[in-house]
Give the backbone structure.
Amino acid sequence: MTLVEIERKRALESRKPLERRLVELGFAATGPTVEVDTYYSRPDVDFLETVECLRVRERDGGCEVTYKPASDDTTHSSGGVIAKQETNVVLADAAQAMHAHGLLGALGMVLLVRVEKSRVCYRDPNRPELSVVVDTIADLGAFVETEIVSERPREEVIDQLNEVERLLDLIPCPVASLPYRDLVLRTKRTLTSPTPGVSQ
C-alpha cells in the first residue's frame, strides 16, 4: 500500500496550553524552525480552485519541492480530515531554493503567495508515524496540525487521529479547513481591498 498523510488543522487561541499538555504526555519537541513556503499554480489550471499544492519550502539549512494532488470527496472529509499522498523532492541544500524557483518560473508556473511561519514539531517516541505540529503564521495566528503517515486503512488512522486530538484537548478548537496558502491570500486580499466610500 501507499503511504498517505492524514491530517487535521485547528486554530488555537494560544499555543501554551497545548504545548504544556504535549510535554506532560512525553512528546519530544524539535524547533522552533522558521519556514518560508512559496506556492505556485499553473497558468492553465487554478490550483486554488482544484486545491492542489505546488510549493518550494525553505527552512534552516534545507529546501524541498512538494506537490499534493487535487482535492475531491475522497481526500477531504466533512470533519476537516485531509488524506493525500505527497510527492517531495528534497534538494541538496538551502542554496538550491533559488534554482527551484527559477525552474518553476521557466516552466511558466504562476507565483501565488509566500507563507512565513515558526514551527515546532512534537513527536511521540512510541508512535513514530504521529506528529503534532504547532505553527505561528505571520499575520494569521497560531494553529496545530495533527498528522499521521500510514499505510493502514484510512478509517483506522482517522480513529487514531480523533483519539489523539481528544487526548490533547483539541476538540473544542475550531477546524481550519483551508490551507495556510488560502488563509494568507484571503487576509492579504482583505487588507488591500478598498474601503467602501473611500476614494483610492
The beta strands are 4-12, 28-41, 53-59, 62-68, 82-84, 87-90, 110-124, 127-137, 141-150.
